[in-house]
Design a protein that fits this description.
Blueprint lengths: L11 E3 L5 E2 L15 H18 L7 H15 L6 H8 L3 H25 L3 H5 L5 H17 L7 E5 L6 H10 L2 E6 L2 H13 L5 E4 L9 H8 L3 E4 L7 H14 L5 E6 L20 E7 L7 E6 L3
Parallel strand pairs: 3-4, 3-6, 4-5, 6-7
Antiparallel strand pairs: 1-2, 1-8, 7-9, 8-9
Length: about 300
Amino acid sequence: MHNDCHWLLWIIVTTQSSQAITAIGVPAPRAPRDGGGAADRTADRLVALCEELERTDLRPSPVVDAAFGELVRLCCHPPAGVIGQVLDRLAPHVDRLRRLSSAGEGLMERYWADRIVGAPDPAAELEQFPYLGNYLDLVRLELAALDAVGLGVPRRVVVLGSGPLPLTGLVLAARHGAEVLHVDRDPAALAAGTAVAEAIGTRTRAMVADLSSAALPAELVAEIGCADLVLLGALVGADAAAKDAITTRLADVAGPDTGLLVRTAAGLRTLLYPEVLPADLPGLDVLLEVHPRTDVVNSVLVARAPG
């Protein structure tokens, strides 16, 4: 894991003080003045992609895959210096884009889960999943972030909002030896994820639970209390307020040594996932904030329960 810490030399991190820190020897980038041209073109294209996707049923197809692929690329790698202007222009469309992204991600994961389970060689089929590399990179980044604050590789992990293709948990179980519990409010999604795990020969456990309920189920409370890591998926909680409510409940039941990872987003990536800042989570002690500048879409908050 110490080699993974070198990842942190190429990303900007923020501590509890919320002051930006840039790695030694890497100058902070300057955003050039755009004059509006690139910003307008980027905003117009994002709106066009939104409208194009709204004319489909969002199920995987060449047209849908190409539109989502371009949408993700634009959000991850926009022209220099346009982010603020594009976000201003896209403000009326943020909810539309996030709904499309959430629905499309769910349909894509279900399609690939069925495809993997039905394949003669499920493990080989999983290797064909177009975003597998992104998940592998995200898990490496998250493990490096945990190591940077002294938490290390987790042995017992609870993944909240695992979905029908629970790649994070599968990677942690298969490649890092973690005991993983997948949690989702959708029984069908959880069943699909369990079928994928069984098909590729990776042992995980599963539990149906709705984190928006007034109280967490007793079985889940017990699991969180003895977990090394609890990971809150980017689509769990529609906004910062919902994530605050959920993480406050988690902090109440987490063990003293339990790490909490909250996936969030920054820049144009907030058009795809809700943005959550350390200040939005007063129920947690946020130890580290990591913002990748690669193809990885999600940012990460590493936290603990206070005290």
